[in-house]
Amino acid sequence: MKKWIILMLSILILSACEITDSMGISKEASKKIAVTKMIKSKDIQYVALGDSLTQGVGDEQGKQGYVGRLEKDMESWQGVKAVTVTNTAKRGRRSEQLIDQIQSGKIDDALEKADFITLTIGGNDLMKIVRSNITELNKQAFDKKRPEFQQRYETILSLIRERNANAPILLIGVYNPLSIFTKEESDMNTIITEWNSDIRSFANNDAHAAFVNIEDLFDSNNNLVYHTDFFHPNAKGYDLMTARIIQTLREYDLNKLSQGQFDFKEESFDE
Question: What is the distance, to the nearest Å, from the Cα of residue 116 to the centroid of all Cα atoms in its chain?
């Protein structure tokens, strides 16, 4: 009788081990499928909006600034067969001028078809305030104009979303080119941080938008990131911008941001 009980217990223990092992294999198998699942590739439309940063001014290598570099990286993403870029940016453009461009209807078709959008705007708004108050420049002058910029930026995003409700939008921040002339902290640094905070808030209020902070990339020229005009990035500066964009897309989760349309081609079986 004792032997019979021991035999039954052994069978039960072995059965339990088999069930546990089977469940473990099933879990690992499903995990592997989830990680290696491929996204169907398609031709995508990338629309770039904004000012000289998006136009690629200062790029001595002629790679169209961060836009051309990002396009190259996008070609390696899951879900991307080929990339067609429509770059509508223009040197010197301010936020009210971008509103005029969108409202003109000339880029409606591009925006409606866009699978991916990037935007740089605000740098020229800041420089206009600098030029208008050059003899007695102070923070109050920027604080006075800040609500107007916030309103215009909100209008820009609303106009884009009226034409395209779901495409991922990268809202790229502003930086302070005047910082290369002095290492001392100034009101301008505070102003840049505040305006970037506004842009970040707009990104946070859009489920398919991400804020890209480039403020620290151009806070000096120690790494030789400026063009000879000491205002725009050079090729190295645009390399750093593109790397920051990719880093941001990883942090935001590209797959989630794009609602499953795109992802980086990386596989990991780690937890």
Answer: 10
Q: Which residues pair with 83 in a beta bridge?
A: 44
Residue linked to tokens 């609500």: 147
Q: What single letter denotes the amino acid at residue 127?
A: M
Alpha-carbon span 90 to 110, nearest angstrom: 16
Amino acid at residue number 195:
W
13 burial via Cβ count (<10 Å: 0-12, 13-18, 19+): exposed
Sign of CA dihedral 64, 154, 256, 211: positive
pLDDT digits (tens, 9 = 90+) for 153-170: 999 999 999 999 999 999
The angle formed by the CA atoms of residues 53, 145 and 108, to the nearest 5 degrees, is 50
Domain layout of the chain by residue ranges: 1-37, 39-257
Task: DSSP letter for 7, please.
Answer: H
Residue 173: closest CA among 67, 256, 264, 244:
244
Express each pLDDT in 157-210 by its tens digit. Answer: 999 999 999 999 999 999 999 877 655 557 999 999 999 999 999 999 999 999
Write the CB contacts of 203 (distance below 8 Å, at least 6 apart in sequence): 169, 171, 209, 210, 211
CA-closest candidate to residue 245, choices 196, 208, 212: 212
Q: Which CATH architecture has domain 39-257?
A: 3-Layer(aba) Sandwich (3.40)
CB-based contact 218:226 (threshold 8 Å): yes
pTM score: 0.84
